[in-house]
Design a protein that fits this description.
5 strands; five-stranded antiparallel sheet
Length: about 150
């Protein structure tokens, strides 16, 4: 495998694109050697789903598209980014609001931390932002430390 692999897709900011983003990232990871039933693949699909949902729901129509980037660096780090052109950065909602929604970033942070990864946000040149998740890349035959299989 090459030292660096990269793939991206740009989709319309519509609810149907969330499922398309999830399917696309699953296909990319499969090509890169991560089986669809691997726990990391499950986590990445959920992360992409949550980030894409946030991009569609919280840009209030001000970002007509969003882009999903997936990068595998030196077979050590998998980086997943979702970019939109809305200037508002993600934030945790107050507890009272979190009763019915608002848990997406909490879920994403937990998944990243559980896998030994991290979350970051970076500005784009057009005034938007990219939310990045970096996860350690583990070979398929190595157990994922800290993540229980079959749960």
């Amino acid at each position: 495998m090459a030292d660096h692999q990269e793939a991206s897709v740009t989709l319309p900011s519509e609810p149907v694109s969330v499922a398309a983003a999830r399917r696309w990232v699953a296909e990319v990871l499969s090509v890169w050697g991560l089986p669809e039933d691997d726990v990391t693949a499950d986590s990445v699909r959920l992360i992409v789903s949550e980030l894409a949902t946030n991009s569609v729901q919280h840009t209030f129509g001000k970002s007509p598209t969003f882009t999903v980037d997936v990068r595998l660096e030196r077979e050590e780090w998998l980086r997943i980014g979702v970019t939109d052109s809305h200037p508002r950065w993600p934030k945790r909602l107050p507890a009272a609001v979190q009763q019915d929604n608002g848990r997406g970033m909490v879920i994403i942070r937990w998944l990243a931390a559980e896998a030994g990864g991290r979350l970051s946000v970076s500005p784009t040149e057009d005034g938007g932002k990219t939310v990045w998740i970096a996860l350690p890349w583990r070979p398929v035959d190595a157990p994922a430390a800290g993540i229980a299989r079959g749960c």
